[in-house]
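Module 6 notes. Inverse folding takes a fixed backbone as the condition and produces residue identities as the prediction. Think of it as a translation problem where the source language is geometry and the target language is the twenty amino acids. Below is one complete input and output pair. Work through it position by position during the lab.
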């Protein structure tokens, strides 16, 4: 699936799923803008792409802050040109019983996981409308499909991402822009390893008896970003090893 000539933006690209997505889109030929707050880590991802002969730039900024989004969007266009592919991957997770969630915790979750995709999408849709072609892929979560205890603020934010995806897909269906989402299910990332979950033992309770890999999500994103997915929009492409069956 060639993405030659396309410019892609990946938020939360320093590590884990975002890093894998950036590497995959670059391997498929896209020029990639990698966006994260972790300056050193995201630069290492960009350098890996450059070392492999690809084209990559870094934007260090908060993808949920309107001023930072405008700055990064300007830097990306100046360096690479109009954006054709946007992957809204940046996000946070939280494990807290409902009655312990504070208003500040709720607001932070919604700001990063919901407001961020809203701001980034508004920033780059004009490029796609001008081109008559665009791909928006939002990273949601299998927890929004199944529910999850002690994660109500996180699940609510990711459920919002799924609804946001569907609404945009309908609104832009006639413009050449597709909007889809991928809900990862139990993927072995630094964020998962930093959580209270016993990754290795929990993996044994899943149908495939193993966690997913970031490359599994990247492959799904690469498909949705390609011309092959031109008639696919508003969809939830579950990548979860059978953990949730739609």
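Target side of the pair, the amino acids:
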């Amino acid at each position: 699936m060639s993405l030659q000539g396309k410019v892609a933006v990946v938020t939360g690209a320093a590590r884990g799923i975002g890093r894998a997505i950036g590497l995959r889109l670059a391997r498929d030929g896209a020029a990639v803008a990698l966006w994260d707050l972790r300056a050193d880590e995201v630069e290492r991802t960009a350098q890996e792409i450059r070392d492999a002969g690809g084209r990559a730039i870094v934007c260090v900024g908060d993808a949920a802050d309107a001023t930072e989004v405008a700055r990064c969007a300007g830097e990306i266009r100046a360096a690479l040109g109009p954006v054709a592919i946007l992957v809204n991957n940046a996000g946070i997770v939280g494990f807290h019983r409902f009655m312990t969630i504070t208003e500040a915790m709720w607001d932070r979750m919604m700001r990063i996981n919901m407001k961020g995709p809203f701001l980034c999408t508004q920033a780059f849709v004009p490029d796609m409308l001008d081109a008559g072609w665009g791909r928006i892929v939002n990273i949601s979560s299998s927890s929004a499909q199944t529910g999850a205890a002690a994660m109500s603020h996180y699940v609510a934010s990711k459920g919002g991402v799924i609804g946001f995806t569907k609404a945009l897909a309908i609104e832009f269906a006639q413009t050449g822009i597709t909007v889809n989402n991928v809900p990862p299910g139990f993927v072995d990332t630094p964020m998962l390893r930093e959580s209270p979950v016993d990754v290795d033992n929990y993996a044994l309770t899943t149908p495939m008896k193993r966690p997913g890999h970031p490359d599994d999500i990247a492959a799904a994103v690469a498909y949705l970003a390609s011309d092959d997915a031109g008639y696919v929009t508003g969809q939830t492409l579950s990548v979860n090893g059978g953990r949730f069956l739609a």
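Reference fact for the lab report: The first strand starts at residue 7 and ends at 11.
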